Amino acid sequence: MFRFALRQLSRRGISSSACRQVNKVPEKQKLFQEDNGMPVHLKGGTTDALLYRATMTLTVLGTGYVLYSLFDAAQPKKKA
């Protein structure tokens, strides 16, 4: 079984799928280098905008929670 698989892999050689790949780098370079007033971290479209907003939301909420925890830890504990 293993020898058969190895033989198939060795016969295949260079895959033909490499010929079908399209080089999209020049398109992306043109998109990110054009001067349209947008920050580079938002030029990727809707996905980038959503990721940016989610990151900012988590950052603000995390900062708020840290400040709340510090304030709570600084308060004297009530004796029961």
TrEMBL record:
A GO biological-process term: regulation of oxidative phosphorylation
Subcellular location: Mitochondrion inner membrane
Entry-linked Pfam families: COX7a
GO molecular function: oxidoreductase activity
Membrane topology: Single-pass membrane protein
Spans through the membrane: 50-71
The organism's place on the tree of life at top rank: Eukaryota
Listed pathway(s): Energy metabolism; oxidative phosphorylation
UniProt KW Transport keyword: no
Cellular component aspect of the GO annotation: mitochondrial inner membrane; respiratory chain complex IV
Keyword Protease: no
UniProt keyword annotations, A-Z: Acetylation, Membrane, Mitochondrion, Mitochondrion inner membrane, Oxidoreductase, Transit peptide, Transmembrane, Transmembrane helix
PANTHER family, per database record: CYTOCHROME C OXIDASE POLYPEPTIDE 7A, CYTOCHROME C OXIDASE SUBUNIT 7A2, MITOCHONDRIAL
Family designation: Belongs to the cytochrome c oxidase VIIa family.
Protein name (record): Cytochrome c oxidase subunit 7A2, mitochondrial
